[in-house]
Amino acid sequence: MNVLLTGGAGYIGSHAVRHLLAEGHRVVIVDDLRHGHLSSLNAARSASPERAVWINAGVEDYAAMLAALVDYEVDAVMHFAAFIEVGESVADPLRYYANNVGGSLVLLKACIDAGVYRLVFSSTAAVYGAPTEVPITEDAPLSPINPYGRSKWMVELALEDARRAHGLGYAILRYFNVAGASSDGVIGELHDPETHLIPRALAAAAAGSSVSIFGDDYPTQDGTCVRDFVHVEDLVAAHSLAMHAIVPGMGNAYNLGSERGFSVREVIDACEAACGHAILRNPEPRRPGDPPALVADSSRIREALGWMPRNPDLATIVAHAWTWEKKRQSQSL
Ligand code: UFG
Question: pTM for this structure?
């Protein structure tokens, strides 16, 4: 298939590029490198550069999106490009709505106008807000508690309306906490600034500095937030399964998690085990917008599409992230 990926130079997008190329697809990567990295893009397409085109544009550029969809005879779109930080979305909500919602609407219109009716959308567990019950199924109430989650929910609603009006087919993938790096160490997480727990804990380990613990008074087993970590390679494998299953005019939503919850303290313990020494911990107040516990029930995608995570263990996820962290530091990436 010819697959267009927005945000293909980002953390998850670059892993998806690599996965799709390995499956034999042609990819059209749309990324203006505002947050993506040329090094990730080049590493991701290095095995099959002749099947990977890069378009230096943002998704809000309707003319560029339409031309890319038509010129490269795109069969399906994977829409990764978005702002992703919960705390930043609380501080600067309008920027999040403009980028995440506004950009997605432009892309959607280009898809409809180009006759591309298969779209995989990167959504988030943040659409569930602070659920009272875990694990969370796709039928749990959608009630996001921060602008990031609301921006993703708004796009979910627009997808459904576009399905009804125009016959769009879509798969909404609600990510829990994506982590790890490619198992061969070729690509990994490169956020600037890095806000995510695992890379921050591992960077602290490498630097001999401390990692913050944002809140230790949550109603959880040890007072710190609980999250469900899914390996980035398992996550992108799910995208391919979902893409192939899309039928124009039909829409589905799937949770992507490993179905196990770990507290922030337990995650730092796992990081210590991976790197072989203690990591200093610095208690800090709660971070705005953080729900206490998010753990997936991913049975829908396991049963409907046969998704089977290869690396569900936190120890493996953290080990791959640590290998990547050492490479990132040694190559100043
Ligand atoms: N945390 C710390 N110290 C840090 C960084 C994070 O204690 O230095 C805590 C956070 O407060 C939170 C947990 O670790 O309780 C996980 O935080 P992350 O920033 O790693 O991830 P989030 O859960 O905030 O967000 C991630 C994605 C979102 C997605 C969400 C869904 O970034 O896009 O998972 O669960 F919406």
Answer: 0.97
